[in-house]
Design a protein that fits this description.
three-stranded antiparallel sheet, 101 residues, mainly alpha, 66% helix, elongated
């Protein structure tokens, strides 16, 4: 390699490293966002009725803000726990399909 080619390779490598670092930082920030009830409905693509029933049945990970036994608790979710829950549900459904075949 000539000196110019080495310089270009070095510059490209530095730029790629910086871009990868920015992408990873954005992914790590997005991977653990706190979502409100409405945001979670949009994130999961389900109705508020379905999400509320999943919360009441304690079939989805969440935390509440408000006093114990409140008539209108505020539900909060994290995107990382929701992603994990989705994977677990997919695995559970896949096992059911395999058992039924």
């Amino acid at each position: 390699m000539s000196t110019i080619e080495e310089a270009i390779a070095s510059i490209v490598a530095a730029q790629v490293f910086a871009a990868e670092k920015r992408i990873m930082e954005r992914l790590s920030v997005q991977s653990d966002r706190t979502l409100t009830f409405t945001e979670t409905c949009e994130y999961l693509g389900m109705s508020d009725y379905t999400l509320r029933n999943l919360c009441k049945a304690k079939r989805i990970p969440y935390r509440t803000i408000g006093s114990e036994g409140s008539r209108s608790p505020r539900y909060l979710f994290t995107s990382s726990s929701l992603d994990r829950w989705i994977r677990e549900e997919e695995d559970r459904n896949w096992r059911r399909v395999m058992v039924n075949e």
